[in-house]
Write the structure tokens for this entry.
Amino acid sequence: GAGVSQSPSNKVTEKGKDVELRCDPISGHTALYWYRQRLGQGLEFLIYFQGNSAPDKSGLPSDRFSAERTGESVSTLTIQRTQQEDSAVYLCASSSWRSGSSYEQYFGPGTRLTVT
Amino acid sequence: AQSVTQLDSQVPVFEEAPVELRCNYSSSVSVYLFWYVQYPNQGLQLLLKYLSGSTLVKGINGFEAEFNKSQTSFHLRKPSVHISDTAEYFCAVSPGGTYKYIFGTGTRLKVLA
């Protein structure tokens, strides 16, 4: 596609339920990132995928958070047993680290998660 | 450890006035530097970037930034702002051209009529 897409755009869920957020990166981008942005805050790194390498999960805040990516395509971020503090906008970004690329990250519009 | 500091959380400025948004970083290795803008309820959009070469970088919407290695800064400037520039601005650093991006906490620019 032309850009990074994320779905759903908004998600309201009850505390304790599981949610799954989806990210479609730009075609050909080998790197994919998930960030969390709480209201009025900066970007908090969650996880990074690069090709077939092991993902960098160092930013995941707890074992309730997990993410998967199939090859260089779609990624899903799963939050189990959601808590109110999980309420935030979850941003996905992709980039290309191939030689000659621009190295910038392209961001999706985000998924706004509200846990009630 | 690398870090990025955006000293001002909010900057109010009148329309057509100049503005400077400050960004300082700490890194023991060379870095790539980026400024992103986030309009309300939208994702982040790249304004400009410094990878190498000329330290003065020009971006979209009339913004520019200057890389100062000795002061480890990458301040963003615009000579004359518009109401439409009201947004959140994030500085980001990629140490050693690695995949890691470290974002500052953002500066909220509010342009007043």
Observations:
- Chain B has a mean pLDDT of 92.
- Residues 84 and 111 of chain B are 8 Å apart (CA to CA).
